[in-house]
Amino acid sequence: MKNLLQYITSQTQLPKKSVENTVKLLNEDCTIPFISRYRKELTGNLDEVQIGDIVKYKDQFEALEKRKTAILKSLEEQEVLSDELRNKIEEATDLITLEDLYLPYKKKRKTKADTARENGLELLAKIIMSQSRNLGSTEISSLASKYIKGEVNSEEDALEGARHIIAEWINERTDIRNMLRHQLERFATISTKVVKKFKDDEKAQKFRDYFDWNEGLNKIPSHRLLAILRATSEGFIRQKIEIDDEKAISKIEDRVIKSNDAASKQIKLAIEDSYKRLLLPALSNEALSAAKEKADETAINVFAKNLKQLLLGSPLGEKRVLAIDPGFRTGCKIVCLDAQGGLQHNETIYPHAPKNDTKGAMKKISSLADAYKIDAIAIGNGTASRETEQFIKRIHFKNAMQVFVVSEAGASIYSASKIARDEFPNYDVTVRGSVSIGRRLQDPLAELVKIDAKSIGVGQYQHDVDQTKLKSSLDTSVELCVNAVGVNINTASIPLLSYVSGIGPKLAENVVNYREEKGAFSSREEIKKVPRLGGKAFEQAAGFLRIKNGENPLDDSSVHPESYSVVSKMAKDEKVKVSELIGNKALLQKINLEKYISEKTGLPTLKDIIKELEKPGLDIREEVKVFTFNQNIKTIIDLQEGQLLPGIVNNITNFGCFVDIGIKESGLIHVSNLADSFVKDVSEHVHLHQQIVVKVLEVDVPRKRIQLKLHKN
Prior knowledge:
Elements: H1 2-12, H2 16-27, H3 32-38, H4 40-43, H5 48-78, H6 83-91, H7 95-102, H8 112-118, H9 122-130, H10 137-145, H11 155-171, H12 174-187, E1 189-194, E2 212-216, H13 222-233, E3 237-242, H14 245-256, H15 262-311, E4 321-325, E5 332-337, E6 343-349, H16 358-371, E7 376-380, H17 385-393, E8 402-406, H18 411-415, H19 418-423, H20 429-442, H21 444-448, H22 467-485, E9 487-488, H23 494-498, H24 504-518, H25 535-541, E10 545-546, H26 564-573, H27 578-581, H28 585-590, H29 603-614, E11 644-653, E12 656-660, E13 667-670, E14 691-700, E15 705-710
Parallel strand pairs: 4-7, 7-8, 9-10, 13-15
Antiparallel strand pairs: 1-2, 1-3, 4-5, 5-6, 11-12, 11-14, 12-13, 14-15
Helix pairs in contact: 1-2, 1-5, 2-5, 8-11, 9-11, 10-11, 11-15, 12-14, 12-15, 13-15, 14-15, 15-22
């Protein structure tokens, strides 16, 4: 535990006591949302990001310790574990150092050095390597001739075998490996060349920039490295990592060669062989892996940030919605949803070519809007979206109607998923897709959690980065968003409930089964009756589960049940009911919190309670806004340089952001076109789904690329 705490505090620079208490809570199966929200006194008010860092370095330390145990066991079995080696292994603070220590003893395929040893050449290698005799070329030949036997047919065979052994020794020297790592870290370049047969290949053209490229490995941006690696894996280009070979070999010679005789000439040859055959291939791969890991981390962070913004997108709320999945030949699939997202009606209309039943479609939409008392219309942003939006706006509704265009990203994946089949077993994928579009308008978070985050379309190269790390990061993002907003336990789906702190998929299923069998929950206390939902799960989950119009008004707030007694005491002291305390800002501001501090409840928790009581159950998300694209822009051909257009940010990367301007292709605002001064972080200037105005800078119709600039109003 002591070593673990030292490791985490050295990596995070967080207070030791905060780290110690957080690790203890994590070991007790507490979740990040629960710890950051309800255990501020113990953590010293650490936020989700800081607690997430503690989790990351705790996992790293545990992986390191596990590897140490495996290596020590292997060395013991080989009977080569000295006290000195054991100490070095136990003191190692990273995997690279650990693997270097293990390298000479690692079980590997038979090497050239192994063959040379079998041929009895190790003693010759030692004599040459010792450089203790001033050997001339005649003496070296004479010495080598003594080893001609069996598979060794000549003096040159003997010397070559000895060099193979020396090359392996050089490869296994930690100081030499670290020196070369340093050279690669500082001076390595990544260069690329197109594979000739793909030079004019259509699929390869998107990687055209990398047909002949050279850049410092320590400077290359994440997106560029991932693009190069993808182009390499698809066979369009070849890439290699390079440093100044002469300089690197010279640095090894300085460390190894002590004399200037025939032995040193043999060692020089062994050094060149070791460098080209063993050291450079392994360490350049290691450098590329490290750069890839860094690029992955950057890409995953951008992805997670985008996902968070998408999940926390503005909800329309509990309003009745008519949702349309637009299309031409196959028609527009329409569904009517009640305020809770329940499917009430579905059918298909054909307002566009080839059927052009515009009049009949208008009549149908109008009558459905009246029959189901529709508050808003959601239109998917796929094929025929713009035409459908224009068609809807021509309808004269009896009541004012809000019309929204909603992202369809991932809707087709949801509609074909098991979750969708379980929800709508009697309907086909087209109906399920339309339902998803409507529900996304009502509550993006509740609907998007049903889709694999990788399929929502808010990242780049999501299939190229480390999949385990990506999944972990995205799951954490979803979990933090769900718990930040809170969940209505009486309407939430199994996927949404499964992200609630302490719940998970199995308990989420039990909650829904209980609800269907017994009816709506009337209190948080009743949650304890759900099968297999024990005290720990209740402690972790209760504060994030909301019960509307329940027996206790606090059940619809983020006040944790463990603090209900504190609120009751406050109400009693103020001579009011708890319900009269809620929302009474003037009264709440007068309460002296010092009176309620106890061993369990400190000032941070009390301040949170007051803040929540002022505006209980306040949704942290912004209100949804209606948006309209420029109606004259229907395809990329309609674009002209200098045009000002309304748009919606639909993806953010480190090199800029992509903007939906109402056509099939999204435009790019490069980071240099976001502001007049240097931009360090794109997300400081724009956020996902932000409504902005852009200026068209350049249109490349053949490559379907649109360059934009953020227009400041």
